[in-house]
Amino acid sequence: MVRLRPVDAQRDAELFERLLEPDVAGPFNHFDSTSGAPLRVALPGAGRVVIELEDGTAIGDLTWFGNPYGPTRPSLAWRIGITILPEHRGRGHGAAAQRMLAERLIATTPSNRVEADTSVDNIAEQRALEKAGFVREGVLRGAQMRNGIWGDQILYAITAADLGI
Ligand SMILES: CC(C)(COP(=O)(O)OP(=O)(O)OC[C@H]1O[C@@H](n2cnc3c(N)ncnc32)[C@H](O)[C@@H]1OP(=O)(O)O)[C@@H](O)C(=O)NCCC(=O)NCCS
């Protein structure tokens, strides 16, 4: 249904600009100036892929970075994030793409865990993650500063054992 491909900076410039527009990023992925200064640090292991349909239409992106739970490499979990263009939502693409990325990250790296966190109010992403096989693990209180307000995030994860890898 969907596939993931590497970023092509020139070809994807327009897509990436669109993903930043407030009405595309949506209320849970748009951070105005009252959210504070941008975090200007290189996140460990950060990556990005484009989500496309079988006919090559680019419909969104997935990003990830490493979140360490200990001093050794296997304890680095991956934290992923996603945006699908509004006209392609509600067709299962978000769930399929996140499942695909989780499988790939677990199969090709020493990590055991892929995580995603989303606002307690972001029902679409919670539903997409649950359809992708992610397990709801708990609430991260006051974790995200968005548009001047501290919000709670829900933490989801999928492990190698969940995936049978
Ligand atoms: C979250 C997002 C990636 C989901 O992508 P998607 O392709 O629409 O996801 P899916 O179609 O796989 O699943 C979405 C599910 O949420 C449901 N849904 C959507 N909006 C909903 C709402 N307001 N209330 C309840 N359920 C909702 C859909 O019906 C669907 O469930 P279903 O298949 O059981 O009917 C997409 O909505 C998006 O890009 N949102 C803006 C950016 C964002 O919020 N990213 C995540 C930040 S953490």
Task: Describe the protein's architecture and organization.
The chain has 165 residues and is an alpha+beta fold. The protein has a single domain, classed as Aminopeptidase, CATH 3.40.630. Helices cover 27% and strands 38% of the residues. It contains five helices and seven strands. The protein has helices spanning 9-20, 22-25, 93-108, 123-131, 160-163; strands at 2-6, 47-53, 58-68, 76-84, 113-119, 135-146, 149-159. It has a seven-stranded mixed β-sheet with strand order 1-2-3-4-5-7-6, sandwiched between helices. Strand 2 (47-53) and strand 3 form a beta hairpin. The protein binds coenzyme A. Coenzyme A binds next to strand 4, helix 3 and helix 4. The site of coenzyme A (COA) has 22 residues, from strand 4, helix 3 and helix 4.
